[in-house]
Fold this sequence. Notes:
The chain is mainly α. It has helices at residues 2-18, 29-55, 60-77, 86-101. The chain has two domains: 1-56, no CATH class; 60-102. It is built from four helices and no strands.
Amino acid sequence: MFERLKVCVEERMMSASNSDSVSSDCITNDKVAYLKNRLMCTRDRARLWLRKLNTSLPGHLGQIGDWLCHAEKRLREIPSDGYDSPGSAVKSIQQHLADLSV
């Protein structure tokens, strides 16, 4: 759902920037920035809620849910263009393992 809204806002932003005239139903750049900010806040709150839900599962399932939330967070931290070298990927994995062992 969030991705669909993001795509819609970005399409509106592109169509607004490509047109020379500003129509009354056009979304301004300020509005787009505001919507992106609100979208990120909503996404972060949904992830927090999901983490609380997963970690509240009984027994080992809660631990697994917590581990999965940490893993998803690490995956989101990976640059969109990937790593420069295998060494930097290994370093990131080792850092993640060190964080888990603490």
